[in-house]
Design a protein that fits this description.
Elements lengths: L2 E4 L1 E4 L2 E9 L16 H24 L7 H14 L5 H11 L3 H17 L4 H4 L2 H16 L14 E5 L4 H6 L5 E6 L7 H9 L3 E3 L4 H4 L5 E5 L4 E4 L3 H22 L15 E6 L5 H6 L5 E5 L14 H14 L5 E4 L15 E2 L2 E2 L11 H6 L1 H14 L5 E5 L5 H20 L8 E6 L2 H5 L1 H7 L2 E4 L1 H9 L17 H16 L9 E4 L10 H6 L4 E4 L4 H9 L3 H12 L4 H12 L1
Parallel strand pairs: 3-4, 4-5, 5-6, 9-10, 9-18, 10-11, 11-14, 14-15, 15-16, 16-17
Antiparallel strand pairs: 1-8, 2-6, 3-7, 7-8, 12-13
Length: 585
């Protein structure tokens, strides 16, 4: 009888193949004390393993095929930086020296300490970076053991699917290119690096399937339904035939989508729609251009700062990264968010830790995003000066995250003006920039009349807006089903923000640009609703651009507007479902 499991769909499509199990190096790690006087010998084992992994990562990066997604090289760089991070190297060696743990035990003990800090993070994207640390530790454990990641079993010319507890993005390219038709992992989320690479490779993938690697056996037939987050193990021949037909239809649909790359995003009633890309690293610009993005709607700059200890990127390093993005986009608008980091991810080499425990009781409501930046004005102005310098090379917009208070607004503009003065004092003329507010908390929506007077644009971060409106941590499995972007309260706030931004044109000397940059923007099933609410600018992962464009080309905004208002008027789930069905018809 077929076994069905559900996970999180992160890359669309259907894959049918034999299971190849990727073993976890953390299973059955030996725990023993080294003999007194042998501590340095054990530390040398750790050093040798780090050197071997460093060589392995360098070889992987050097041998990346020319058509590999640009994200892969960037993610390998992240793993190389993590490998040299003192929290992994120095602190693991301290476990060996102080407690005489063997190297494998010391690594897993230190991983537990690091993992606790990541688990406290509010931002889901940053929280999922714990997986990168775990993947580096996995590599080190394998180097210490001299073992391989892939078990034997599946072979020949059959289609294969990879099943793992987790898998590092670089490992995807370690195997014969094209051999795996899909990926399944026990852990991970929509913004994990594995998910990002799977989308870049256009490979069906389901993550967060919990017990998949334990319940699926080597060489089992597996169907991966990347559209619905469904796994079917040992399916009947009739089910296999049905999914193979769906797979063919899905592949044809993807090929047809590619034809839309250079088609202007214009609705049936002539409305021009801006489709922008969200990126994490400068190399991601290539994927954005391949997807036909008309610009960058969100560049998350915190990844320039992470895993650096006290060695934070200086003004010149930041300037080069921002300039590179602006120039790569060739005159298209580039929106760069100031660092969105804080109590949930300290930058100063563990200064906020005491005996391995996090000192902030509630990072979700603590010193983060613009609050963090304003608490360290010198660091903030370094970033602002770098942004202002890069603005001289193209269209750059500065986006300020998690604003809620008038004083934050005024302090931000004061720091920006001071950064301009510092540049001019150094003989550098700052470039012209537009400044926008990121709307992420309900209080910011209620503060829009003030924000719209001061800012050139707003960008609605629906991921946090949903979380803060409903008081739901979507990473908490016990309440994750309550995380609902279509909750009437969320839709009311979203509609209010869009409407007020459009209305500001009547009393302001120029229109206030409004976009959505959260997951809702990249969901083709929500495109018509957002168009009906008046949204004309969407920002999403590059892999989602063409699917959303397809919906835009088939939409008539004049018809959708009253239908979207009907959705806003429904509060009972059944009534809302009927209104949404009418909108989609």
């Amino acid at each position: 009888m077929a076994l069905q499991m559900f996970g999180i769909p992160v890359s669309r499509g259907v894959a049918v193949g034999r299971a190849v199990l990727m073993s976890s190096a953390r299973l059955d790690v030996a725990h023993y004390f080294v003999d007194p006087g042998q501590e340095e010998q054990e530390v040398n084992r750790l050093r040798s393993a780090r050197a071997a992994v460093r060589d392995e990562l360098q070889t992987l990066q050097t041998e990346l095929p020319s058509d590999a997604p640009p994200e892969l090289a960037a993610f390998i760089d992240v793993h190389k930086m993590l490998l040299d991070d003192p929290h992994i190297g120095r602190e693991t060696a301290n476990w060996i020296r102080r407690r005489r743990y063997n190297a494998e035990w010391a690594l897993t003990a230190q991983l537990d300490v690091i993992a606790r800090s990541f688990d406290e993070m509010d931002d889901s994207y940053l929280r999922e970076r714990k997986a990168d640390v775990e993947q580096v530790v996995e590599r080190l454990l394998r180097a210490l053991r001299g073992t391989q990641a892939i078990d034997g079993g599946a072979h020949g010319d059959e289609d294969l699917v990879l099943v793992a507890h987790d898998i590092a993005p670089a490992d995807m390219m370690q195997f014969k290119q094209g051999v795996f038709r899909g990926f399944v992992t026990d852990i991970g989320g929509k913004t994990s690096h594995t998910a990002i690479v799977a989308r870049s490779l256009d490979i069906p993938a389901v993550v967060g399937a919990r017990e998949a690697s334990r319940l699926i056996r080597q060489d089992d037939w597996v169907i991966i339904d990347g559209d619905n987050g469904l796994l079917i193990v040992d399916p009947s021949p009739a089910i296999v035939d049905d999914y193979r037909v769906r797979k063919q239809e899905s592949e044809l649909a993807r090929q047809r989508l590619q034809r839309l790359r250079n088609t202007p995003a214009r609705t049936l009633d002539g409305q021009s729609i801006e489709l922008l890309a969200n990126i994490e690293l400068p190399d991601d610009c290539e994927a954005a251009l391949r997807g036909g993005a008309s610009g960058i709607g969100l560049f998350r700059t915190e990844f320039l700062f992470m895993n650096r200890g006290r060695d934070l990127p200086g003004e010149d390093e930041q300037f080069e990264a921002y300039r590179r993005v602006v120039q790569t986009m060739g005159g298209r608008p580039v929106t760069i968010r100031t660092i969105d980091i804080g109590a949930d991810k300290p930058l100063d080499d563990g200064a906020d830790y005491r005996d391995g425990e996090f000192t902030h009781l509630n990072p979700a409501l603590g010193l983060r995003a613009i609050r963090y930046s304003l608490s360290d004005p010198a660091m903030f102005r370094v970033q602002l000066r770098a942004l202002l310098r890069a603005a001289g090379f193209g269209r750059l917009r500065i986006l300020v995250p998690m604003l809620a208070h008038a004083r934050e607004l005024h302090q931000t503009f004061a720091q920006l003006e001071l950064a301009r003065s510092e540049l001019r004092a150094a003989g550098i003329e700052p470039g012209a920039v537009e400044v926008g507010a990121m709307i992420e908390v309900p209080g910011a929506v209620l503060m829009l009349p003030l924000f719209l007077r001061h800012f050139d644009f707003i960008s609605i971060g629906t991921n946090d807006l949903v979380q803060y409106t409903l008081a739901i941590d979507r990473a908490d499995e016990s309440v994750a089903e309550l995380y609902d972007p279509l909750h009437p309260a969320v839709l009311q706030l979203l509609a209010q923000a869009i409407a007020q931004s459009h209305a500001a044109h009547s009393w302001k000397d120029r229109p206030v640009h409004v976009s959505v940059c959260g997951e809702m923007a990249g969901d083709p099933q929500l495109t018509r609703l957002l168009l009906g609410l008046g949204l004309r600018s969407f920002s999403m992962h590059p892999a989602q651009l063409l699917a959303v464009k397809k919906e835009v080309l088939r939409a008539d905004c004049s018809r959708l507007a009253p239908l979207a208002q009907a959705v806003l008027g429904q509060f009972e789930p059944e009534d809302q479902a009927r209104a949404l069905a009418a909108l989609a018809a």
